Amino acid sequence: MLPTVFQKAAKVISIIEENQYEAYFVGGCVRDYIIGRPIHDVDIASSALPSEIQNIFPKVIPVGLEHGTVIVRYEQESFEVTTYRTEGVYTDHRRPDEVYFVRNIEEDLKRRDFTMNAIAMDAKGEMLDPFYGREDIVSERIQTVGDAAERFKEDALRIIRALRFSSQLGFSIEGHTKKAMKHYKGLIDKLAVERLTVELEKLCAGSFFKKAVDYIFELEIYHHLPIFNDEPLLLKELEPVASLAPVFAFVALKRSSITVTDCIKAYKCSNQLKQQASNLVDAYHHYKKDGINAWFVYQWPRDHWDHFTYLVKQIDKDIIDIKEIYSIYEGLPILSKKDLCVNGHDLMRWFPERPKGKWIKELLDQIEYHIVISGLANEKSKIKEWIQWNLPVQD
Ligand SMILES: Nc1ccn([C@@H]2O[C@H](COP(=O)(O)OP(=O)(O)OP(=O)(O)O)[C@@H](O)[C@H]2O)c(=O)n1
Ligand SMILES: [Mg+2]
């Protein structure tokens, strides 16, 4: 009996088969199933063309028709189905010039990156493994399908993928594969950097990150990783972490010549990641100046704390007990400005002679700060009393 994640998708495969086409589970889901890792998404490959899939299922979303990928909606769930394909020449090493649909699963498996990723599984759990991927999984070996040089010339991202699989799984890279990685690493520079970023994030998150870093040094791949090309040793200092935000914050804090913005630009990351990394840098400075006090805990979002403690550990070797942060959090009198029992209207009512101005915001900020940090009670009368003594000079 297949695990639950496969069961619904297995019905989709059966329906395709009932319509005289083939369909298999392929890629990461089969690999992770064999290894016994959690399966996050299930991919299906089929001999049916996108238009043929559209004829079988009433609800099909054409997400990447040029690559042969559609999303089949089935019983309120989505399944990605990709037509068997083989790829044409990659003149710019970024993307295939053409995709050719084929009717044979082996042709499809043949153009995949590593043997462990080139295993197909049918709806009953029967495996089709023409490149002995299972053997490589048992031997914990990352090996390209067929000629390594060809696979990396087709898509140089695979060089980074080999590293990230090594980081995630702790597997070793087979000799020919490794040699070809070293030889073709220059092609990494031609990749669309966003693709590199996705793999780098997974690489940094792997439990066997150190092993991947050893390969990065052995094969001198750091020359082709933006930012780290100038500062490769920083990679050796990093521990695994699930986001690039603390990685970039770490880099910026360790090297004054590199800013978070430099990292974000180099890897074309989102503004959200930029904000997270900058917050971490600010939080670190705050911590160095004032330690972890109520204002610190109040200010920084909760989803930030793990990465913050990680950063302090990486930089200062200090271990911060996250429970300590939580207990300060539990004792906070307010959790946001919305919880203040006064607002701008109250202030204006209390000081009718004062024209509207930035004093209102400044005063609210001060009230907020004192409530959080110095025990000012969050009660209208107490706040009013406190203001008598602290009203800023009129602007
Ligand atoms: N450059 C690439 C990227 C992907 N693939 C193939 O497409 C599958 C799906 O790719 P992707 O989802 O990017 O990787 P996964 O192996 O599924 O890993 P993950 O579990 O992290 O998604 C891979 O298993 C592999 O067979 C490939 O041959 N070459
Ligand atoms: Mg996948």
Question: What can you see in these coordinates?
Answer:
With 395 residues, the chain is an alpha+beta fold. The chain is 51% helix and 10% strand. The protein contains 20 helices and 11 strands. Strands 1-2-5-4-3 form a 5-stranded mixed β-sheet. The protein has a two-stranded antiparallel ribbon with strand order 6-7. Helix 6 (148-154) crosses helix 8, helix 7 (157-169) packs antiparallel against helix 10 (209-218) and helix 12 packs parallel to helix 16 (305-316). It is elongated. The relative contact order is 0.06. The structure holds cytidine-5'-triphosphate and magnesium ion. Cytidine-5'-triphosphate binds next to helix 7. It comes from Oceanobacillus jeddahense. This is CCA-adding enzyme. Pfam families: PolyA_pol, PolyA_pol_RNAbd, tRNA_NucTran2_2. Its cofactor is Mg(2+).
> What structural category do the secondary elements indicate?
alpha+beta
Proportion of helical residues: 40-55%
CATH fold name of the largest domain, please?
Beta Polymerase, domain 2
Bound molecules: cytidine-5'-triphosphate, magnesium ion
Q: Please, how many helices? A: 20
Q: What is the β-strand count?
A: 11
**Domain tally:** 4
Overall CATH architecture of the largest domain: 2-Layer Sandwich
CATH superfamily of the largest domain: Beta Polymerase, domain 2
Widest β-sheet, arrangement of strands: 1-2-5-4-3
Strand content: 5-15%
Q: Tell me the radius of gyration.
A: 28 Å
What summary fits the major beta sheet? 5 strands, mixed
Instruction: Characterize the quaternary organization of these chains.
Output: single chain
Arithmetic mean pLDDT: 94
- The coarse silhouette is elongated
How far apart lie the N and C ends? Answer: 75 Å
CATH class label of the largest domain: Alpha Beta
**Low-confidence segments, ≥5 residues, pLDDT <50?**
none
